[in-house]
Design a protein that fits this description.
Elements (H helix, E strand, L loop, with lengths): L12 H12 L15 E7 L6 E7 L2 E2 L2 E5 L10 H8 L4 E4 L4 E8 L2 H14 L2 H8 L6 E6 L4
Length: 150
Amino acid sequence: MPITGEYEPSSWDWVRDQVAEYEATGGQSANTLMDTGIPIIVLTTRGNKSGKVRKMALMRVEHEGEYALVASQGGMPTNPSWYYNLIADPTALVLQDGAEPQDYVAREVTGEEKALWWDRSVAVYPSYADYQEATDRVIPVLIAYRADQA
């Protein structure tokens, strides 16, 4: 089910602009992280405190129809807001990987499963390893899978 309500764009200009262009073009434009050439997806959640619709561009780490959502926040000392949004309501998740947004459900992974997804994530975006070294927190990884397969 689509996430409805008041949309509050990111306070970061580059995120706000990238999400807007990605959505406006059905993923045909603004579909990579800046000049890296690495594909992104657009993540939509509902703010766990504000209730507002939130959107973020994340690295595209896909395997057999599931996606890793790496809560790196560039190695900052705190988890990103979207992580807390999904912990509060893992079913309030829409991912857009291309033209059509789809409903997803998220779950946090640990142990061997996290290690597997972490390796996949670092293979796509090696900077994740640098981010983990830059912070004292353990960077969480969530897996998003289609809501109709839950």
